[in-house]
Amino acid sequence: MRHRKKIAKLNITSSHRRALMANLVRGLLEHEKITTTLAKAKLSGRMAEKMITLAKKGGLHAQRQAVAFLQDKKLVSKLFKEIGPRFTNRAGGYTRIYKIGLRKGDAASMAILELVGETFKDEDVVPEKPGAEKKGKKAQAITPEVSDKEQSAPVGDAEPDVSEESIEDTPSVETPLEDTADEAIEGDAIEENADDVTDKKEESANSAEDNEKNIPEGNS
């Protein structure tokens, strides 16, 4: 039975896995932040916390254990002098993991593994595709903003307010001089025609009266 054997195999041999974990932990302790796959980040973070626990204990035996795993004396010196004292008042949880999306090519889940206290930058996050939205979500309708004046305005046959500024801003329509001259000429012609008609009527009436006077009385 495989009780208490939940360590990730990573599809590699034990010697390869040990060398890989030592390499990742060295990079984490040196730069205090690394980017790798999510599975490797979880496994290497566990080993890094064991190294920090050895640094908090101190002593020659703990240093030899750290050197046996990391294979770097300078890095072990930094671990025991700088990194270990930083977490003296912290009981575990020296690392944290940020998921940053999928890797291009094989779509592997990527993550950032860093020591607690290191600032996280948004530049490390892989931007998502613009069309990668969940299905079934309806687009929210964009409602236009209504001002207080429009809300308070009465609804119905209310007459629009015409201010003096709006009247001044309206352009004045000027009739051309040629049109006004033509209209004046037409008006004068109409008046002359009316005078001619009245004169002709008066002449006809006068001629009728003269004819009646010239008729002899015997014939009547």
Beginning-to-end CA distance, first to last residue: 160 Å
The coarse overall form would be rod-shaped
Content-based structural category: mainly alpha
> In angstroms, what is the radius of gyration?
52 Å
Strand content is: 5-15%
Poorly predicted runs: none
Instruction: Spell out the helices and strands N to C.
Output: HEHHHEEHHH
Average pLDDT confidence is: 77
Largest sheet data: 3 strands, antiparallel
The strand count comes to 3
Annotated CATH topology of one domain: 50s Ribosomal Protein L17, Chain: A
How would you describe this structure to a colleague?
This protein is mostly helical and 220 residues long. Among the domains are: 111 residues, Alpha-Beta Complex (50s Ribosomal Protein L17, Chain: A); 37 residues. The protein is 51% helix and 9% strand. Strands 1-3-2 form a 3-stranded antiparallel β-sheet. A hairpin with a 6-residue loop joins β2 and β3. α2 runs antiparallel to α3, α2 packs across α4 and α3 crosses α4. It is rod-shaped, with a radius of gyration of 52 Å. The termini are far apart.
